[in-house]
Amino acid sequence: MASREEALAYPQQDIELAICKSCGFIQNIHFDPSYHEYSERYEETQGYSAHFRSFLNEFVDELIERHQLHNRTVVEIGCGKGEFLSLLCRQGNNRGIGIDASYVPGRIAEHADLDLTFIQGFFEEHTDVIAVAEVIICRHTLEHIARPAEFMHKLREAIPEGSRPLIIFDLPDTTRVLEERAFWDVYYEHCAYFTPTSLAALFRQEGLAPQTLYRRYGEQMLVVEAYPDETGDKQTFSLERPVAELVTLSDEFSQSVERTVDGWSQRVQRANQAGQRVVLWGSGSKAVSFISALGNGCRIDAVVDINPHRQGSYMAGSGYEISAPASLAALQPDLVIVMNPVYEQEIAAELKQLGVKTELVSL
């Protein structure tokens, strides 16, 4: 948010998760899209992290090698600011079409030499682009779709008869969230929560045949690679667990997640009472959810983020200002809580460069 006042006034709504006992799909049954703004103000990119850029490069290289993705037309649904699509086009000499309401023209000007077209809008308004797709990619998007079956049905209908594009979806795996009681990964923007079981079921239901199903990025992300189903292929995968197990896991999450919240709340309160300075590293949705769950009894002294487009803005709900990591050299925090453990080593190295000696813990 541009001001603290705007951030504090941002509307807040309840989340109630419900699980389908037939397929294991989990959703926020109170989700109302009118409360969720998704425009070019939405700042989702993680591309300012060297660790994340390395991950993207490795992922792109693996996909290119495994599927021989050279000189193909790639359509990415929910392309964000275009980093992934640009890499795939550069490293595979591919043509790219990206669709995203949050796309900001000019953010990837250094890739102006590539055959790239970006559409600032929603996929449902531009399904015609699928007709030319040889590869369809959708990363970190399906979890934002209130009616994912309708979304997938529109995608399947948009694929011309006889066409066989490679389809790759990449999204958070809710299994880890349930097992780790990761309450910080439950937030309003995510209205749809998938496990390998429910994701594979959705693809099969909509006439798409998963070819492989695997986890990446510290076991946090779930990737499915599929083709249009022409044979009635019902291949299953080891990651798929019985729905009854997922229902039990969901019940256990509901019964014990408050203990996890209380544990973190007490940790921060002890630091506050000891006069220690507490910092959150990362200002995205995890941080918003973490702060909201802890409540007003916990004081956070600073929130930092390496994304320069976030710095100087304010976090929705709490109104905390987002600062650059360099500010920690003066603050000298006693406790830094990392919002995503995959970045802990990178953050530790940056803190060392800044001359900050602190306790570093990750969610």
TrEMBL record:
<keyword id="KW-0489">Methyltransferase</keyword>
<feature type="domain" description="C-methyltransferase">
    <location>
        <begin position="251"/>
        <end position="354"/>
    </location>
</feature>
<keyword id="KW-0808">Transferase</keyword>
<dbReference type="Pfam" id="PF13489">
    <property type="entry name" value="Methyltransf_23"/>
</dbReference>
<dbReference type="InterPro" id="IPR029063">
    <property type="entry name" value="SAM-dependent_MTases_sf"/>
</dbReference>
<protein>
    <submittedName>
        <fullName>Methyltransferase domain-containing protein</fullName>
    </submittedName>
</protein>
<dbReference type="InterPro" id="IPR013691">
    <property type="entry name" value="MeTrfase_14"/>
</dbReference>
<dbReference type="Pfam" id="PF08484">
    <property type="entry name" value="Methyltransf_14"/>
</dbReference>
<dbReference type="GO" id="GO:0032259">
    <property type="term" value="P:methylation"/>
</dbReference>
<dbReference type="GO" id="GO:0008168">
    <property type="term" value="F:methyltransferase activity"/>
</dbReference>
